[in-house]
Amino acid sequence: QVQLVESGGGLVQAGGSLRLSCAASGSISSINAMGWYRQAPGKQREVVATITNGGTTNYADSVKGRFTISGDNAKGTTYLQMSTLKPEDTAVYYCGALLMRTVHWGQGTQVTVAS
Predict the structure, then answer these.
(1) What DSSP character marks residue 28?
(2) Are strands 109-114 and 10-13 parallel, antiparallel or unpaired?
(3) By the 8 A CB rule, do 38 and 45 touch?
């Protein structure tokens, strides 16, 4: 079993920056990939960025060039550096860890970007 805890969310003005952190505990050796997802009110959860055990990163087009994912899956840590934030980035951000075919989710952290 893997448990995930996110932190770093908050209220920020448009154009500002935030850094989200995620720490996993439990069976971290079983993690194949980690990532960040977000869900805005009335919207489906969507992928923001992922990082594989080999360090390969992928980003949603909407955040490419503004967000950076980093971390070490072997240590069960991942970070999301967000810059040039826009109001449309407002959402609950979730850390996810892929264990073969199952995804474990954190509790989520609210990011609100004000105009």
Answers:
(1) G
(2) parallel
(3) yes
Tokens 């550096």, residue?
81
Task: Express each pLDDT in 49-75 by its tens digit.
Answer: 999 999 999 999 999 999 999 989 889
Residue with tokens 């003005």, as numbered in its chain: 13
Residue 106, Cβ neighbours under 10 Å: how many?
22
Distance from CA of residue 63 to its chain's centroid?
A: 12
Question: Please, what is the average pLDDT of the chain?
Answer: 96
pLDDT of residue 100: 85
CB neighbour class for 88 (10 Å; exposed up to 12, middle 13-18, buried from 19): exposed
Tell the burial category of 43 from Cβ atoms under 10 Å away from its Cβ (0-12, 13-18, 19+): exposed
